């Protein structure tokens, strides 16, 4: 058996820098928006605007989770973590998902209680809430587009998850904007209904992120499309007679591979080793994000 590590130093460094920079941008934007929403939400008596502010504050927690994971995920392998620390990214994504679930359910519960208690005496909302909601909507949509672009550029699922979290904010802010406008024209219960809808959206997204993270933490294989590319790369390598028992498992955004390579029985171990090393290098050049390739030599 030959274990052939594939190093991704340049990619890991680029991912770390991109994650740090983009996440701090998100922290600053969300902090400013949250402060503005809370102040104007209290002044204007808008439940939906305050709910949206709470959602923005949850972004700050998820942003710090990304920063912490970014710090530890690319730490070198050690005795207690011989396969590296890449799954810190999956743990961070799981935390974000659970956070979204908690926030969403809480918003639905609180909104439902207010609706059941009656809407006749609900206060009118000040027009300043509409202005702030519009500004927040634009800012969050721009933040989503920025974070998604960075996440795709460095191929980081953690950053992409955080970007879609920002998109959930943008969608919720749109609903809040519509609800505030409806309240201003006399539909006084629209503000509360908006907070419930926002909560439902957050809950759905949180459930999806949580489920995906659980799969990734349970040695989930790479997707079918990626597997086919890996198979094509292996079989196209000169000197390979065939292969079998190909297994993959995800670790963060990277992949571990275990495969049996078939060689003529007359081939020397040295020759087989060189071909196996070529397989490893080809997988790396195809940008499969491979951490390690473990090969078994089988004579045919």
TrEMBL record:
GO terms for cellular component: membrane. The chain crosses the membrane at residues 24-50, 91-112, 124-148, 174-202. The keyword Signal does not apply. It is found in: Membrane. Belongs to the cation diffusion facilitator (CDF) transporter (TC 2.A.4) family. GO terms for molecular function: monoatomic cation transmembrane transporter activity. It comes from Pelistega suis. It comes from the Bacteria. Keywords: Membrane, Transmembrane, Transmembrane helix, Transport. NCBIfam families: CDF (TIGR01297). Residues 223-299 form the Cation efflux protein cytoplasmic domain. Residues 24-217 form the Cation efflux protein transmembrane domain. It holds the Pfam family ZT_dimer. The keyword Transmembrane helix applies. This is Cation transporter. It is a multi-pass membrane protein.
């Amino acid at each position: 058996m030959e274990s052939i590590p594939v190093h991704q130093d340049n990619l890991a460094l680029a991912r770390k820098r991109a994650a740090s920079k983009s996440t701090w941008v998100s922290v600053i934007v969300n902090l400013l928006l949250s402060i503005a929403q809370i102040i104007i939400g209290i002044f204007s008596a808008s439940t939906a605007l305050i709910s949206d502010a709470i959602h923005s504050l949850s972004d700050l927690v998820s942003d710090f989770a990304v920063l912490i994971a970014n710090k530890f995920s690319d730490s070198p392998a050690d005795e207690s973590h011989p396969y590296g620390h890449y799954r810190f990214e999956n743990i961070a994504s799981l935390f974000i998902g659970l956070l979204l679930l908690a926030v969403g359910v809480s918003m639905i519960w609180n909104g439902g209680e207010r609706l059941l208690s009656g809407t006749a005496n609900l206060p009118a909302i000040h027009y300043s809430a509409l202005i702030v909601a519009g500004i927040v909507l634009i800012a969050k949509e721009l933040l989503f587009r920025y974070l998604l672009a960075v996440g795709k550029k460095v191929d980081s699922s953690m950053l992409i998850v955080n970007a879609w979290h920002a998109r959930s904010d943008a969608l919720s802010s749109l609903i809040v904007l519509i609800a505030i406008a409806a309240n201003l024209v006399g539909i006084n219960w629209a503000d509360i209904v908006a907070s419930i809808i926002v909560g439902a959206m957050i809950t759905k997204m949180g459930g999806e992120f949580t489920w995906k993270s659980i799969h990734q933490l349970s040695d989930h294989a790479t997707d079918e499309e990626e597997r086919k590319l890996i198979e094509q790369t292996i079989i196209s390598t000169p000197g390979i007679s065939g292969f079998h028992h190909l297994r993959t498992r995800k670790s963060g955004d990277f992949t571990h591979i275990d495969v049996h390579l078939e060689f003529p029985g007359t081939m020397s171990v040295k020759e087989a080793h060189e071909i196996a090393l070529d397989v490893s290098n080809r997988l790396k050049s195809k940008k499969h994000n491979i951490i390690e390739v473990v090969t078994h030599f089988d004579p045919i």
